[in-house]
Design brief:
CATH architecture: 3-Layer(aba) Sandwich
Largest sheet: 5 strands, mixed
CATH superfamily: Gcn5-related N-acetyltransferase (GNAT)
Number of strands: 5
Distance between the termini: 42 Å
Structural class: alpha+beta
Radius of gyration: 15 Å
Shape: globular
CATH topology: Aminopeptidase
Strand content: 25-35%
CATH class: Alpha Beta
């Protein structure tokens, strides 16, 4: 497995894997805009001081990715790290791929001064399994996400 910060050459594979994530999860009934996804990925690549995008490749195949960013808390000046997405192809779940992606994001965040790292599980995919993994490595479950569609 090769782990590397995202580059321009990764934009299309990341969009493709992102579409797989979209189709699998709770967002599949919402609009998908591939151009918007590509622009978001490019913004992450072009702002490495505040944005993190890491890819996991098995040979030439992108099998996992994580994207996250740093931002000040709304009430003060301490820095918070949040994931934008964290996804591993179903064939690679249960391997160390997801854990390695997360550890790299966490290390990057803390090295840049983040006081906390927040990871969401909003796709509705493998929620219990993902939560158990996060708790095993020191994350604490706080709150939840509630949705209502019009």
């Amino acid at each position: 497995m090769i782990y590397a910060r995202a580059e321009k050459k990764d934009i299309i594979p990341m969009g493709n894997l992102g579409h797989q994530m979209y189709k699998e999860g709770a967002f599949k009934d919402l609009n998908w805009d591939l151009d918007k996804v590509h622009r978001l990925t490019e913004r992450y690549i072009n702002n490495p001081e505040t944005h993190f995008a890491l890819c996991a490749y098995d040979g030439d195949r992108l099998v996992g990715m994580i994207m996250g960013y740093l931002t000040p808390y709304y009430f003060g000046n301490d820095i918070l790290a949040c994931d934008h997405l964290w996804y591993v192809d179903p064939e690679y779940r249960g391997s160390r791929t997801g854990l390695r992606l997360l550890k790299e994001f966490r290390t990057w965040s803390l090295d840049l001064g983040a006081k906390e790292v927040c990871i969401g599980v909003s796709t509705g995919t493998d929620v219990d399994r993902t939560g158990a993994l996060l708790e095993r490595i020191g994350f604490v479950h706080v709150g939840g996400t509630y949705k209502a569609r019009s």
